Amino acid sequence: xxxxxxxxxxxxxxxxxxxxxxxxxxxxxxxxxxxxxxxxxxxxxxxxxxxxxxxxxxxxxxxxxxxxxxxxxxxxxxxxxxxxxxxxxxxxxxxxxxxxxxxxxxxxxxxxxxxxxxxxxxxxxxxxxxxxxxxxxxxxxxxxxxxxxxxxxxxxxxxxxxxxxxxxxxxxxxxxxxxxxxxxxxxxxxxxxxxxxxxxxxxxxxxxxxxxxxxxxxxxxxxxxxxxxxxxxxxxxxxxxxxxxxxxxxxxxxxxxxxxxxxxxxxxxxxxxxxxx
Length: 277
What we know:
The protein is α/β, with parallel strands linked by helices.
């Protein structure tokens, strides 16, 4: 395992790289206001055990990557897609299997549309084709909590607890201790209490009509109780991307529950195998 920094597209990105450099590459793209450590080590270990190279990184404006003053230097999902491709360039990854969660799934869609030659497969987890009047809106309570000012690490941790309580579905119990543990790890790394990721997400154009151009094996994983991107967002992704497979998680919210890790891993392996063979 190696870690380090890459300078690309005007920002500095922290990354971690596991597995053999010549193996099929999986790039994990995390969601809004979440750093790379939100990808569990168990998932990375399981993927590398399959002989895959796995890269996770902090998007701009979070974690150990460059924090941005959005007021003076606004950015979009296109910029974040350019960041990801720049990271791939720096690490010598010509094509990757993109696994994107929430905002990371949106970034992955943008890459597949703008840089199709760089994508081997797509795994779109708890995400959306973008703001679109044809799709259900985000729950107002989620928006209220997510945009609440957080000036200290304590504020950020409490906002995270309050937010994840709303985001968690009814199938599995809410694990406040785990949320606080992740917040503590983020604080120790140097997270950004007021990242502008949400602005980039909700000001992006809809990709509903454009996604018909995606021509790589794609799996969509979505919870039936997701309050940020209700179920019709995931179903629409699966409908408009040719040949996409939809895995619905009953009773799951905007989350990737640990008890479903094996099911997710099996889905990822199958999707990657479809691209490789």
